[in-house]
Design brief:
2 copies of one chain form a homodimer. Chain A is α/β, with parallel strands linked by helices. Chain A has 3 domains: 47 residues, 434 Repressor (Amino-terminal Domain) (Orthogonal Bundle), CATH 1.10.260; 125 residues, Response regulator (Rossmann fold, 3-Layer(aba) Sandwich); 137 residues, 3-Layer(aba) Sandwich (Rossmann fold). Helices cover 43% and strands 15% of the residues of chain A. The first copy, chain A, contains 13 helices and 12 strands. Chain A has a 6-stranded parallel β-sheet, sandwiched between helices. A 6-stranded mixed β-sheet of chain A has the order 7-6-8-9-10-12, with helices on both faces. In chain A, α5 crosses α13. Chains A and B meet through α4, α5, β2, α6 and α7 of A and α4, α5, β2, α6 and α7 of B. Chain A binds a DNA duplex through α2 and α4.
Chain lengths: 348, 348
DNA sequence: TCTGGTTGCGCAATCGATTGCGCAGTTTCA
DNA sequence: TGAAACTGCGCAATCGATTGCGCAACCAGA
């Protein structure tokens, strides 16, 4: 097969078919009826286009139409079951609308996040979804000057519609479950500790409230040292859990891990312990991973409905009214050692 | 804040600065020196551009320059630690080169895969990476008529450079390890079974060879029924492992699971068993997941070096010579209950 | 003063598709 | 039979940036 000098354009097809570029354009799109191109002509043109392996240049089309057919999404990190299943849903819904998804990860870095938003604006994405935003206000500012519709997911922003999990509810349920599994007295080692997340994040703060409320309800409001919002880094979490256990002289009675990434770090510590050392501890993790659900020890997991989150986000993007508002989706408590295939068994 | 009628263009900046569009273009890019624009002029123009929140229109630039700054990658599925960590690396290398990554998942569907390739061609991606290709020849054909450089990853194609793991080696090592852990006699239940993957896939077939060679070496070449290449679907794998155990009257002595997705299905079955039922079985999985590494029972895992795979793929794309060739990367055997942070602790 | 080089910048074509408008030829209908 | 309506299609402008080429002003040297 000889390599053609360059990709065929609409002009090449026009030349080959004896039609004008306008006619070719119309014939290849759906509006040939409204431009009154005769059906035999259309078929002839399409035949030639197929023969030449013609494919439209979306840059040119986008330039003219002032829309690109791209949808952007920013996520903190790909390599995580929560966010990668969001990506999967995001892509599925994009396809349904004939849009092409562009997903970029910010590594939870504010500047990187803004850089990505600016880049996506340069590519004229038609809509933008931001999951786990670090600086929602700045993002909204950028989007506004570009006239770009955007929706926050997972972490809300004040400047645009936001769809998030009911973090308070999810955390409260998980905490209640862990308390029920705990047997110890309210000595330091008998307490439950929350680890991971960033306290100023909306999501984490709501979870902490849920955690706190349930403990208070149970008569043991948490001491400050019971809440270790040390961020999302696995290594940092490992460090913190190590320090905690050193202080306490062993694992506490309960452990509420605030994200999968933090849980990876915690696991890095637990791996080094004799199996029986973990037995007395009730462990829960906010977010679900099918493998994490079947560890050596039982783990309660909160499964956020990422599919529903994204579905709702797309709904919001479509609404005429882009007034900021908060929409909450119920998460689900998954019992230990349960493989949950989710509402869409086709994934995974 | 009032919404401007539309995004500022280079012409707006030209008008505001009293310069011509060409000058503005040059001033905002790096070639103002070669066009001999005076430095004060450049600074003034940049100031005004910043003031107006100008951002370049990549569609227009791409159209003119016949390149988009996009780099595409097709993966089978996002929601999987192997592929999502590939995505992470893919994105990191793209950033280093000033490219914007576009990652799409084919769900391992041939038609979907081709649709995606065509779409990415329409968007004029500068390069294309295809991981786990279903129909490499067809992809190469499309890319050739578009004059698009592409590289296959994980599953090779005959029409372009390919970088893959040394599947034979990885499978052989894993098999050897499992054999060493097994105690049973070579009765059917005492045997080791390989489950998951598609036998006609290059990767799977090489792994099966590795598996077979090691068993033959040990004096027990596998019977056909010991190789259950039932695809990648978790549900299918669950079904097959269930059927197998029904036939055997329990778990076999060894289990070589051929992918994380199949492992999810297998796990779905194992979850329902009493813990001690699993004790006598040596289990291994091709591909690594940090959580899977610390299940109730020990699992040997093969970790492919996705970072290195991608790095090598980018190298190949740069080469002048795009002759098809196969490059192999060594995978690593991860002992049970080990958290491996990989060569790049920044991820995850 | 004339030539030749340099500086600083603008004109206009170009990339590939879309689209408002208009034009010739044919049909319809009063 | 003439006007109106319809059919089928092409012309040329347009989207926003890049780039080859050229031009005017200035300076230095002969």
């Amino acid at each position: 097969m000889t390599v053609p000098p360059r990709k065929a354009t609409i002009h090449d097809i026009a030349r080959l078919s004896g039609a004008s570029p306008s006619t070719v354009s119309a014939a290849l799109s759906e509006n040939w009826k409204s431009r009154r191109i005769s059906e035999p002509r259309v078929e002839e043109i399409r035949r030639i286009a197929a023969e030449q392996g013609y494919s439209i240049n979306m840059q040119a089309r986008g330039l003219r139409q002032a829309r690109s057919g791209l949808v952007g999404m920013v996520i903190p990190i790909h390599d995580n079951r929560f966010f990668s299943s969001m990506s999967q849903s995001f892509e599925a819904f994009a396809r349904d609308r004939g849009l092409v998804p562009v997903i970029a990860s910010s590594m939870r870095d504010r500047n990187e996040e803004l850089r990505i938003v600016r880049t996506l604006i340069s590519y004229a994405v038609d809509y933008l979804f931001i999951a786990g935003a670090t600086d929602p206000e700045a993002i909204t500012a950028l989007c506004r000057t570009a006239g770009l519709r955007h929706v926050f997911v997972d972490l809300p922003g004040p400047g645009a519609p936001s769809v998030i999990s009911d973090n308070h509810q999810g955390a409260a349920r998980l905490t209640r479950q862990l308390l029920a599994d705990m047997t110890g007295d309210p000595t330091p080692r008998g307490r439950i500790y929350l680890i991971g997340g960033v306290a100023t994040d909306y999501a984490t703060s709501r979870r902490i409230e849920g955690f706190r409320d349930v403990l208070a309800e149970a008569g043991h409001p948490p001491a400050p040292e019971q809440i270790i919002a040390c961020g999302y880094s696995p290594l940092r979490a490992k460090h913190e859990i190590t320090a905690l256990c050193d202080r306490l002289g062993g694992l506490p009675a309960g452990l509420f891990v605030n994200s999968l990434t933090a849980f990876e770090g915690v696991l890095g510590y637990l791996v080094g312990l004799p199996p029986e050392a973990v037995e007395g501890t009730a462990i829960g993790c906010y977010d679900y991973d099918p493998f994490a659900a079947y560890l050596q020890f039982p783990v309660h997991m909160v499964r956020q409905d990422s599919h529903r989150l994204i579905e709702l986000a797309y709904d919001l993007i479509d609404r005429e009214d882009q007034t900021p508002a908060l929409y909450e989706v119920e998460p689900k408590l998954i019992p230990p050692r349960t493989i949950d295939y989710g509402p869409h068994g086709q994934f995974g």
